[in-house]
Amino acid sequence: MITQSTDPISTRNSRNTEAKELLRNRPILRLLLALAVGFSVGSSDTVLKCQEPAQSSKSDLFASPSKTPATTPPQPVPSDEYRINPEDVLDVYVFDSPDLSHEYTVSTAGTITIPLLAEPVKAAGLSPEQLSRALEENFRDSGRLRHPEITVSVKQSRRSVVIVEGAVRNPQVVQVIGRTKLLFVLTEAGGVSDDAGNTVTITRGAIGLRDSSSGNGPAPSTAAIDLKQLIDGNIPGSNVDIYPGDRVTVERAGLVYVLGQVGRPGGYMLRSRWEHLTVLEVLAIAGDATSTAKKSKAVIIREDPKAPNGRVEIALNLQNIVAGRSPDRPLLANDILYVPGSAGKRALHTLATVPVSVATTAADLAIYRP
After folding, report:
1. CATH 1.10.3210.10 assigned to 161-252
2. pTM of the model
3. What is the domain class of 255-368 according to CATH?
4. What are the residues whose beta carbons fall under 8 Å from the beta carbon of 171, sequence distance 6 or more?
5. 166 pLDDT higher than 50
6. Is residue 176 within 8 Å of residue 185, measured between CB atoms?
7. Sign of CA dihedral 162, 164, 170, 173
């Protein structure tokens, strides 16, 4: 029996030759083999890259505070955004940290002290949003909180007030947070009273002077607004901005009173305390003297602190004034024009109590606006 030699090297070479011959005769198999090899190499490379740890993960999580970059200064606060002031009460909410979520009062130095932070944090001059970001950065730098989420809101501001005074129903100090509107603070004070004049004067505080200034120069320290235009809403610019620290004064209109034998006795409102109406103008508004009036015995009762009883009486002859033989006297705020009837002397004596009780009788009289 003849035994055939089986050399492994010869067998392998023979197989390689056959495979090459097969690939040469079948180009489709050759293309499929190339695609399979390329896909295998790409996949292994991708797996290796996915397994590599992030280059900055270790340094970000365990970096010491001394190696952190310098703190970025806060960006300027927009003029219409509220700035925190000393003595403000802030509501600080730290997500998932109830022990840190409390109310904090800004010190007179403008800082707040937060547990776990070694140093007080500056708050005055920042917006609530800016303070939130500053606290988050301080907690990250200290290593106390890795991913802090903090919200700051102003709960109470002792300096963020507007004083509303003058001819309003409830003069008071109105709490405001940031910029607001004139109509808002007037509404908070109960609206204007019946004796309100035609002018609202706004005296700017430090914040108002700073934030209401334009490129043409510093803002004026006072501004006068027409009350009628403000209420009617015909001119949108009348509802001006009001800032913390401003003072809003509604001017009281002067009142003149016409009593006695006239068509419509009552109080007649001037547009301002400095407006003057003459005797004939007031008589025309009051419906003129009646037929029973004794026009030659009319009198003006005027307040005068220097007089013995605090008032003076100025005699008038309405007939001479109408005829042009006597000057038409101006009436001042709070003057009383009394036109007696036929029993004028007796009525004049009973009038002695009128100036003393002007404040109470004025409430009972009809008030007319010209």
Report:
1. no
2. 0.52
3. alpha beta
4. 164, 165, 189
5. yes
6. yes
7. positive
